[in-house]
Amino acid sequence: MEQWQDPGAERRALFGLLEDVETVNSFFEQLADDVKWTLYGRHPLAGSYLGRDEFMPATIERVRPLFSKGLRFQITGLHGAGGVTVAEMRGIATAKDGVPYDPFYVWICRFEDGVIVEVHAYIDSVVVNDILRRLSPE
Fold first, then answer.
1. φ and ψ at 81, to 5 degrees?
2. What residue ranges of the chain have pLDDT lower than 70?
3. What pTM does this model have?
C-alpha cells in the first residue's frame, strides 16, 4: 500500500478553490464532465450521480439557496497517493435563518490526467438533514 504524501501544488491549488465562496464554482467546473460522484449518508442528497450535470442540481444547487452568503469549505487535511487525493473539510456557512452550517466532509477523489473522474464523498448527515428540514421548500 502506498504511503500518503503531500498531493502536490497543483492539487493543493485545486482544492484551495473551495476555501473562498467566490471560487467554489471554479472547483466544480474542473471535474470531468462524466464524473462519478457518490454521496454517502442518510439524507436526501445521498446517492450516486453520473456527470456534473446530474450532480450539481441534485446537491450543490439544491442547498446553495439555503445560505445567506454562500458555502465555502475549510480544508483540514489533504492527502495524496498516486492518482488519489483525500480531502478532509469543514463546511462554513450561515443558513438563512442564522444557524451555522458546519458539517464535516471527506472526499476521496480519483484523478486521471489531472482531472477528477470519481469521488466518494462523506458528509455529516445530521447537519444536512437539519438544514433541509428547517429551510427546504420540499
1. -160, 115
2. 1-2, 137-138
3. 0.93
